[in-house]
């Protein structure tokens, strides 16, 4: 890999490894490096591009939409064959996507969606069903407390404000728990998908809320930060406060196997190979499905113990 440019957000160009469609150049704008999930996703995209013989221009937006817009404009100027990006937030993309369309450069959304009404602005969206992930988290909670009539006080650590996973995981979870009035979300705030913010916000929750039964964190990293806060407050994570997270990265799975997290809903970051297949088809002018949903599962503590040693990321 050779570093071609380094500016606000940081860009690199990965060479191809021979074979395949070496003429395809993809500009990829990544959200940032906020979580273990994101690091695994970046590696998956970079490794898959190399394997597919696609030249990858990669930039890290450091969780800022303005950096992603700049990166996309730069890819348009460089006349790449295809642009792929994981939008940090859902709204505000129409103008730059229109610019790509006018330049006849196809766009693929990966991981996160945009809320543009005009779906012709992108060829396909590859990624998880975040609403479903939130529902799975809620369903576990309903089952866990099925024999209890006492109130269940829940605190929620939301992902990045305005991002598709934060919006959808919140909505899916809320829909399922609304069926029973004993469930009450007593506090809900963003932790920006990072461990540091998860810890900070959980510390504030613990000070403000005398009686927390459950933490629902929109990703493992925030959950792991919150575990530090819970232990710091002299409570036992997984017992005094039950914890549900999303992702299933290795550190999260370790905490689940150790009994500090109670349940994890998987969100797979391994999107690279499918992204490269879709990109090749789009560049050739072949039809691709408008939505490709990632296959995912869930993990209990026992299941985490069984799969931990073989977890790739
Ligand atoms: O968009 C996927 C989410 O972004 C992951 O769940 C989270 O860890 C990441 O930062």
How would you summarize this macromolecular structure in one to three sentences?
The chain has helices at residues 36-52, 65-77, 94-102, 130-144, 164-177, 195-208, 220-232, 250-257, 272-284, 301-307, and strands at 2-5, 11-14, 25-30, 55-60, 82-85, 107-110, 124-127, 152-158, 183-190, 214-217, 242-247, 263-266, 291-293, 298-300. By secondary structure, it is an alpha/beta fold.
Question: What does this molecule look like?
Answer:
This protein is an alpha/beta fold. The chain has two domains: 25-128 and 269-295, Rossmann fold; 130-267, Rossmann fold, CATH 3.40.50. Helix content is 39%, strand content 21%. The protein contains ten helices and 14 strands. It has helices at residues 36-52, 65-77, 94-102, 130-144, 164-177, 195-208, 220-232, 250-257, 272-284, 301-307, and strands spanning 2-5, 11-14, 25-30, 55-60, 82-85, 107-110, 124-127, 152-158, 183-190, 214-217, 242-247, 263-266, 291-293, 298-300. It has an eight-stranded mixed beta sheet with strand order 1-2-4-3-5-6-7-13, with helices on both faces. The chain has a six-stranded mixed beta sheet with strand order 9-8-10-11-12-14, with helices on both faces. Strand 8, helix 5 and strand 9 (183-190) form a beta-alpha-beta unit. Helix 6 packs across helix 7 (220-232). It is elongated, with a radius of gyration of 20 Å. Mean pLDDT is 94; it is low at 1-8 and 16-21. The protein binds alpha-L-arabinofuranose. Alpha-L-arabinofuranose binds at residues 34-35, 37-38, 111-112, 165, 193, 219, 221, 246-247, 267. Pfam families: Peripla_BP_4. InterPro entries: Peripla_BP_I, SBP_2_dom. This is ABC transporter substrate-binding protein. Keywords: Signal. Residues 28-287 form the Periplasmic binding protein domain.
């Amino acid at each position: 890999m050779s570093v071609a440019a380094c500016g606000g957000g940081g860009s690199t160009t990965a060479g191809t490894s021979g074979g395949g469609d070496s003429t395809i150049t993809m500009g990829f704008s990544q959200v940032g490096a906020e979580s273990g999930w994101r690091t695994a996703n970046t590696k998956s995209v970079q490794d898959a591009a190399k394997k597919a013989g696609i030249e990858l221009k990669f930039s890290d937006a450091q969780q800022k939409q303005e950096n992603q817009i700049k990166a996309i404009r730069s890819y348009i100027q460089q006349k790449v064959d295809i642009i792929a990006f994981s939008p940090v937030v859902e709204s505000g993309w129409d103008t730059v996507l229109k610019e790509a369309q006018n330049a006849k450069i196809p766009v693929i959304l990966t991981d996160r969606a945009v809320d543009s009404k005009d779906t012709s602005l992108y060829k396909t969206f590859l990624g998880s069903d975040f609403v479903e992930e939130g529902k799975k988290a809620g369903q576990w909670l309903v089952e866990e407390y099925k024999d209890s009539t006492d109130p269940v006080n829940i605190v929620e650590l939301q992902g990045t404000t305005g991002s598709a996973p934060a919006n959808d995981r919140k909505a899916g979870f809320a829909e399922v728990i609304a069926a029973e009035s004993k469930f009450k979300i007593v506090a809900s705030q963003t932790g920006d998908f990072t461990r540091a913010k998860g810890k900070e916000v959980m510390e504030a929750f613990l000070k403000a809320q005398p009686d927390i039964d459950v933490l629902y964190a929109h990703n493992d990293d925030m959950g792991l930060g919150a575990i530090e806060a819970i232990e710091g407050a002299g409570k036992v994570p997984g017992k005094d406060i039950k914890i549900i997270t999303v992702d299933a990265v290795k550190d999260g799975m370790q905490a689940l196997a150790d009994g500090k997290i109670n349940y994890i809903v998987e969100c797979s970051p391994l999107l690279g190979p499918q992204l490269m297949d879709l990109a090749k088809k789009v560049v050739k002018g072949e039809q691709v499905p408008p939505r490709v949903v990632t296959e995912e599962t869930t993990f209990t503590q026992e299941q985490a113990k069984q799969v931990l040693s073989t977890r790739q990321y």
